[in-house]
Amino acid sequence: MEKRCPVDQSELQSQGKDWLCPTCATRYRVQGRCLDCGAEMERLQACGASNWFCPRCNELKSRARVETQLVPVRE
Ligand SMILES: [Zn+2]
Ligand SMILES: [Zn+2]
Protein backbone atom coordinates (compact mmCIF):
# COMPACT_ATOMS: atom_id res chain seq x y z
CA MET A 1 0.00 0.00 0.00
CA GLU A 2 1.28 3.44 -0.90
CA LYS A 3 1.85 5.93 1.90
CA ARG A 4 1.87 9.68 1.60
CA CYS A 5 3.30 12.48 3.69
CA PRO A 6 0.46 14.16 5.64
CA VAL A 7 2.16 17.55 5.17
CA ASP A 8 2.97 17.72 1.45
CA GLN A 9 1.38 14.55 0.04
CA SER A 10 4.67 13.25 -1.33
CA GLU A 11 5.01 9.52 -1.73
CA LEU A 12 6.98 8.10 1.20
CA GLN A 13 9.99 5.86 0.71
CA SER A 14 10.39 2.75 2.81
CA GLN A 15 13.39 2.85 5.15
CA GLY A 16 13.47 -0.29 7.22
CA LYS A 17 10.69 0.09 9.79
CA ASP A 18 10.27 3.77 8.99
CA TRP A 19 9.06 5.85 6.07
CA LEU A 20 10.94 8.84 4.70
CA CYS A 21 9.46 11.83 2.91
CA PRO A 22 11.89 12.97 0.19
CA THR A 23 10.33 16.44 0.10
CA CYS A 24 10.42 17.59 3.73
CA ALA A 25 12.95 14.99 4.96
CA THR A 26 10.67 13.86 7.77
CA ARG A 27 10.75 10.28 8.97
CA TYR A 28 7.50 8.62 9.90
CA ARG A 29 6.63 5.48 11.76
CA VAL A 30 3.36 3.61 11.45
CA GLN A 31 1.50 3.40 14.73
CA GLY A 32 -1.53 1.20 15.30
CA ARG A 33 -4.45 1.62 17.66
CA CYS A 34 -6.84 -1.16 18.57
CA LEU A 35 -10.39 -0.37 17.50
CA ASP A 36 -11.74 -2.78 20.12
CA CYS A 37 -10.11 -1.28 23.23
CA GLY A 38 -8.19 1.81 22.08
CA ALA A 39 -4.78 0.58 23.23
CA GLU A 40 -1.59 1.23 21.30
CA MET A 41 -0.58 -1.91 19.44
CA GLU A 42 2.70 -3.63 18.69
CA ARG A 43 3.70 -4.40 15.16
CA LEU A 44 5.07 -7.87 14.61
CA GLN A 45 7.07 -8.64 11.48
CA ALA A 46 7.05 -12.21 10.31
CA CYS A 47 8.17 -13.51 6.92
CA GLY A 48 7.58 -10.18 5.18
CA ALA A 49 4.03 -9.91 6.48
CA SER A 50 3.19 -7.61 9.35
CA ASN A 51 0.69 -8.38 12.04
CA TRP A 52 -0.72 -6.23 14.79
CA PHE A 53 -0.82 -7.45 18.36
CA CYS A 54 -2.92 -5.77 21.03
CA PRO A 55 -1.35 -6.15 24.49
CA ARG A 56 -4.62 -5.28 26.22
CA CYS A 57 -6.83 -7.72 24.28
CA ASN A 58 -3.84 -10.09 24.27
CA GLU A 59 -4.45 -11.21 20.72
CA LEU A 60 -3.48 -10.65 17.10
CA LYS A 61 -5.87 -8.40 15.21
CA SER A 62 -6.83 -8.34 11.59
CA ARG A 63 -6.13 -5.16 9.61
CA ALA A 64 -9.81 -4.23 9.80
CA ARG A 65 -9.60 -3.92 13.60
CA VAL A 66 -6.56 -1.63 13.53
CA GLU A 67 -6.51 2.10 13.02
CA THR A 68 -3.10 3.09 11.66
CA GLN A 69 -1.54 6.52 11.50
CA LEU A 70 1.82 7.96 10.51
CA VAL A 71 3.67 9.53 13.41
CA PRO A 72 6.76 11.71 12.84
CA VAL A 73 9.96 10.28 14.33
CA ARG A 74 12.06 12.77 16.27
CA GLU A 75 15.48 11.56 17.30
ZN1 LIG B 1 6.74 15.62 3.51
ZN1 LIG C 1 -7.34 -4.23 22.04
Automatic annotation (TrEMBL):
Keyword Cytoplasm (UniProt): no
Keywords, A to Z? Answer: ATP-binding, Helicase, Hydrolase, Nucleotide-binding
* Superkingdom of source: Bacteria
Q: Under the GO molecular function aspect, what terms does this record hold?
A: helicase activity
Listed Gene3D superfamilies = YfgJ-like
Q: Name one Pfam family in it.
A: Zn_ribbon_6
Show the coiled coil region(s). none
Its name, as the record gives it, is: Replication restart DNA helicase PriA
Q: Which InterPro entries match?
A: DUF1407/YfgJ-like_sf, YfgJ-like
